[in-house]
Amino acid sequence: MKDAIVFLGIQGSGKGTQAELLAQHTGFLHVNIGDLLREQVNLGTEIGAQVNTIIQKGELAPDEIVFELIDRRIADCCDGVIFDGFPRTLVQAEFLLQHYHVVRVYYLDLKKVDAIKRIQGRKVCSQCGTNYHITNHPPKKSGICDACGGKLFTRGDDAPSAIRKRVAAFYEETYVLKKFFEEKGELKTLPALEPIQEVQDMIIEDIKLG
Ligand SMILES: [Zn+2]
């Protein structure tokens, strides 16, 4: 069985960044389920078409599709995997335990109000897709991309009502998973508002101890 490290956390908690840093440190493969799904949509595959319809409705991709994409991606790689955006359901959590040796599940803890603040400030370049944040990572010139001079905009799914809905759904969904891994003694909670490198140091220290 391959080793697996899991990151749970809402958008804006920095889980993707932490997962990527840890992947560089451990040599494990960083697997972002959202990216795997979007890749299928962009490639125009049969799975992609199914996924697209589901995502448009704001629903979760079915477990079987998620499992298949993970199996394909991981089949002949690496000693271990860092999951980002997986598991999202209890069925997926059980799948994880059956197929991997779970080293640790990290939960990047961010309060609802802080999560909303972080997501709300996000801006994207209309030309090159570079991400900005009005307070955490502002462009040099307001509303203009540093990289290409393109105009920055707020994505449709970052509208205030969409954000509130997404945030509420996240906490509901994640509460169950947190409890599940807590009971198995695999969960470790990390403070998402601390500086990126400090959080990463906590993780590396924790893995050594484990
Ligand atoms: Zn740009």
Lay out the secondary structure.
Layout: E1 2-9, H1 15-26, E2 29-32, H2 33-43, H3 46-56, H4 63-74, E3 80-84, H5 90-99, E4 100-109, H6 112-120, E5 122-125, E6 131-133, E7 152-153, H7 160-183, E8 187-191, H8 196-209
Parallel strand pairs: 1-3, 1-4, 2-3, 4-8
Antiparallel strand pairs: 5-6, 5-7
Helix pairs in contact: 1-8, 2-3, 6-7
Bound molecules: zinc ion (ZN).
Key features?
single chain; 210 residues; alpha/beta; Rossmann fold; 3-stranded antiparallel beta sheet; 8 helices; 8 strands; 49% helix; globular; binds zinc ion
Description:
By secondary structure, the protein is α/β, with parallel strands linked by helices. The protein has a single domain, classed as 3-Layer(aba) Sandwich (Rossmann fold), CATH 3.40.50. The strands form 2 sheets. Strands 2-3-1-4-8 form a 5-stranded parallel sheet, with helices on both faces. Strands 6-5-7 form a 3-stranded antiparallel sheet. It is globular and about 50 Å long. The site of zinc ion has 8 residues, from loops. Zinc ion binds next to loops.
